[in-house]
Amino acid sequence: MSEQRLEVLLTSDSSGQMFNMCVWDPTTGTNLKIYKGNTTRSKTCCMIGNTFLISGQTKQPLLNVWQLNKHEQKPLKYITPGILQSLAASPCGHILVGTVEERIYVWQTSSGKLLRIINNGHYQRINLTKFTTDGSCFVTAGEDGNVILWQQDSSKPKQVWSHHTLGVTDFHLGMGGLNSRIFTASKDQTVKVYSVASGQFLLDIEFDSKLLAIAIDSAEENGFVGTDNGLVYKFSLTNPPRDLKMTMIPNDKNTFKGHTKEVSCLSVSLDGLNLASGSADNEVRIWDIKSCQCIKVILHKGVVTTLSYMMPKLGMLDSEAFTADMTLPLLEKTVVDKNVVLSDLYAVDIITNNQVSDEGTKAEPKARQLILAGGGDNSVVTDQNKSYDDEGTDVNLEIKKLKAINNKLYEAAVKAILKE
User: Is this model's pTM higher than 0.85 or not?
Assistant: First the structure.
């Protein structure tokens, strides 16, 4: 049985020569587990429940899908509507959000059903997607400089922040769900801080380089940004300025020097003592935050595209302890047209020995699906206290018929079981 570990480091690189994803011991640099096959695109790695590790491929509209206890990918081809720029799963694993250019796709993981396509928020490519910790909303950020908060069940933006003048490259969502803060990093050399619940603009921090990555410790006392010149800067959140603006002045106490190329990703250890940075120089460096000194270097074969401190999932390191709690069918690529009758969308056939009812007649045909794909509000209209669907059918009458059919199916099933 594997030794119990409180924290591991998950990484991927652009080459895919040695592995696609790798789990490391951050204290020793030891390779603990690898996931094979293809490569992972930056900003697309996520977990679905305690069962799957998934990511988007770099050059094809496909997903990499691993069961956490296995090295090899699942044999099914998980095809997406396009090459994903970002991907995120809700904390419970029931919803999956992916982005292609400026479009947002929302899937239900249990059925693979595409719930909706959102294309009314961003007007340029979306770079990153993340869920709030309570799973009620998700946030997208793009090349247009916009950062948008979306409710999970709505196609209308709940909150839009548009203070950045250039593309947003990374952001961090704090703990606390809607009561958290969001920290954004941009090519315009600034970090901006917002309140998620109120939408209030809290802080604006200026730097001297383009910012490509950001990480905040779990206590939200210190923040870290990675730049296009290979430097990592630390800034304090415990002594905010009296006004909104603050200028970061680099010095030996707040600068991490070691990378020779742009910093692509950052992650802070759970105890807030160490910082991991990945770079285009093919290195992952582990830093002691207090002294700003590099204490370990983990070499990769390509640009580091994923970097995350995490608690290992049950079964990730010990296959015997693995228990699957989710399923992941193939994903739909298009939303079903709301004008089409969805008679068999959620239909279930109950097979009995006789296949007929007591009256000698065959079971009634499957009921027409009344709830249309995507949960559109315009599928039902009301007139004089009666509800009708798009074809003028009385919805209340249809519901009564459905109840009658369900009762007959239940009676037939009970009789078949008793005969057996």
Answer: no
Chain position carrying tokens 């919805």: 395
If you compute the radius of gyration of the chain from its CA atoms, what whole number of angstroms results?
25
Edge-to-edge strand list for the sheet holding 232-236: 211-216, 222-227, 232-236, 255-256
Task: At 386, list the tokens.
Answer: 């009666």
What is the full DSSP assignment across 82-111?
S--SEEEE-TTSSEEEEEETTEEEEEETTT
Contacts of 331 by beta carbon, 8 Å cutoff, 6+ apart: 63, 78, 79, 80, 96, 107, 112, 114
Rounded to an integer, what distance in angstroms lies between the CA atom of residue 273 and that of residue 95? 33
Neighbouring residues of 123: CB distance < 8 A, sequence distance ≥ 6: 102, 144
DSSP string over 326-393: ----PPPSSPPPTTS--TTSS------SSSB-TTSPBPPPPPPP-SPGGG-TTS-EEETTEEE-TT--
- The overall longest dimension of the chain from CA atoms, in Å, is 88
Strand order in the sheet with 190-195: 168-173, 181-186, 190-195, 201-206, 245-247
Per-residue pLDDT of the chain (420 residues), as tens digits, is: 445 678 999 999 999 899 999 999 999 999 999 999 899 999 999 999 889 999 999 999 999 999 999 999 999 999 999 999 999 999 999 999 999 999 999 999 999 999 999 998 899 999 999 999 999 999 999 999 999 999 988 889 999 999 999 999 999 999 888 999 999 999 999 999 999 999 999 999 999 999 999 999 999 999 999 999 999 999 999 887 778 888 888 888 899 999 999 999 999 999 999 999 999 999 999 999 999 999 999 999 999 999 999 999 888 888 888 888 888 999 998 875 454 444 444 434 444 444 433 434 333 443 333 333 334 444 333 444 455 554 455 778 888 888 888 888 888 888 888 775
Tracing tokens 């396509």 back to the chain, one arrives at 117
Structural domains of the chain, with CATH: 8-321 (2.130.10.10), 336-420 (no CATH)
Q: In terms of Cα–Cα distance, which of 258, 178, 172 is closest to 217?
A: 172
